[in-house]
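The records we work with from here on pair a chain with its fold. Taken together, the tokens spell out the fold as the letters spell out the chain. The record below shows the convention in full.
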Amino acid sequence: MRRSRSSNLAVYLLLGVWALIVLFPLYTMIANSLKRQKEIFRNPFLPPWPFEFDGYTTAWSDGRFDLYFRNSLFVTVISLLFIVFLGSLAAYALANWRGRTSAILYLLFVAGLMVPIRLGTINIFQIIQMLGLVDTVFCLIPVYVAMGLPMAVFVLTAFMRGIPHDLIDAAHVDGASEWRIYSSIMLPLVRPALATVIIFNLIPVWNDLWFPLIFIRAEDQRTVILGVSLLFGQYQSNWTRILSALTLSALPILILYLLMSKQFIKGLTAGAVKG
């Protein structure tokens, strides 16, 4: 009994230290974004008082952050919808189609996790150029969908294979179509997996700088991360504005994680207690 309590205490202590290490840079960024320039150099670790919102208003209006935010939000939402929809359809098919061909297709999707999509940047750029999508935010959507599908298929297929096939057989007996089974039975049962797929794909899509930097030159088509990198060059001496822009760019990911953390944890721990 004492050993279990001491081991639990050690685990909680280790997790607490790790949480402080992770949260400290976040606190430093947010706290200094609410200070004046002199206060940042005086002591960057003290809490801000009084609060200064000049960096946020300047980054949002003068830096055109509102435009970059709308572009990133549009690209991210549309990409995630396609990733979840196409990935869940492919996972449903692979989970219920057992055979050599389905196994080969599944391995091809899994292989996509091991091959970085950036290796094909030149060929992707040529395709985007042929489609006439260069310098538009629309060119990023098919790239991000292709980047996120392997992860979606890998996670969702494993979850759907764990659902008892008797449910599908009973639905077939009741006369339900494949679409009805997919939408009314499978999707509600794999909601934790869907949350996991969304969060795992949200971070690389929202934070991507590589493809916007290569494909987009028009100012009105820039994404948040590309815009923030340019703001950094514009406001090199004003750390308040830089940190304000970085805080604004990180807020959507933090908010979505807090809203979906319960489903995300369920998705990560699903199957851990099955014997």
Observations:
- The radius of gyration is 23 Å.
- Residues 271-275 have pLDDT under 50 and may be disordered.
